[in-house]
What we know:
Elements: H1 2-20, H2 24-42, H3 51-61, H4 63-74, H5 76-89, H6 93-125, H7 133-138, H8 140-145, H9 159-165, H10 171-177, H11 180-195, H12 199-224, H13 227-242, H14 245-248, H15 251-274, H16 280-286, H17 288-297, H18 300-314, H19 319-332, H20 335-351, H21 358-372, H22 381-392, H23 400-433
Amino acid sequence: MFDTDIKSLKSLNHYLQKLVENRLWLKVIIALFLGVGLGLLLSPQNGWITKGTADVLGNWLALPGMLFLKLVQMIMIPLIVASIITGIASNDKENLKKLGGGVLLYFISTTIISVTIGTILGLIFSPGKYLHQQAVVDHEQALANTAESTELSFGINDIPTAITNLLPDNPLASMVSGEMLSIVIFTIIIGVAVLSLPDDLLRPVKLLLGAIQEICMTVVKWAMLLVPVAVFGLMAQLTSSVGLNSLSGLGFYVLVVLIGLLLLVVIYLIVVSLLGKVNPFGFLRKIRDVQLLAFSTTSSAAVMPLSLETAEEELEVDPAISNFIIPIGATVNMDGTALYQTITTLFIAQAYGLEMGLMNVIVVVITIVAASIGTPAIPGGGVVILASVLSSAGIPAEGIIIIIGVERLLGMFRTAVNVTGDLTACMVFNRFYGNKPAISPKSISKTKKEYSTV
């Protein structure tokens, strides 16, 4: 009997290994649930361990995740520079004019759509009214500790300066400080200049940039080996520090945000179907690895290498299209973040009992559309911009502390939506400007090529 049990366990173990082999999405899902389970066990709310011990354990558990993020961020800037310039240099000038203008118009349009959805949901459901004024009073001490955030502002008078600051005085300094939007604009300018080179000079530049891109992707493949462990540790740390009780009071607000993000994904699928002429369910199946990794890391920048690989190998997007759209989209196309910021701004205003007129809402919408373009593609980047949005609307920026308990949770969902929007844009523009055929309904039945390195 004992031998039979051992054989059964071995068979089960063999089956599980076969099941998760080369399936990154399944490994991530398993790691998510295991991390949440361990985090709940380690939560100080259970009374089993002290908060100090839980924090120490959480930091050690999050170590693989932090190493993964650092490893990817380490090569992010050279990858962005090489990808954008390669994407531009791979197009002719006339095609680039059409592609560049179309991408800009597309990104602005989807951002406006996302902000509109957020405004409508925020005004119809009014989630802030369900948060008692006492909830604000209970956070007075925490608000006092975050008083410095009121200094952030973004008004009409700041727009000329903000536009001027988009061009970096020193590109190397921008790379050191991680000013991604300035780096992207600088790279686009250099890419257009490279396109004007004669063929004998353009060829070695392409070879050099292609080599840099391959080197960066090799480092990314090494980093991808850490993904399941990284997700497990990050989720365990998050759950142990936040717990479940602190999330319950904000449940309706979270629900409204999730409804908005779901509506945005539905719009993406409609766009993929109508403009990209692609089966939307096949599209979702092929990008699930990217979505799950974005959900786990809450960083569009960290997911960018996998987005590039997925666009080219799974979605069969022309590399000239993906190399141009995805690095730019990871920086300026933050539809999920824009929707979140809109609902959150209205939520905090309602929680403070502030009545917002039509002009106040319009100011909020315009500010969020402008500010979302510069939202850092890093964990917590949306909160930094949100503080300036609140200040510009006359809402206490300290109100961010009200939603800080669920911010990371919502950040996971909105980041997954952000990368979905970038890949949607790739499918749309690949149909009109790409040289490689997009995925068709017939290709859905084909076996999915898995990442051999994971």
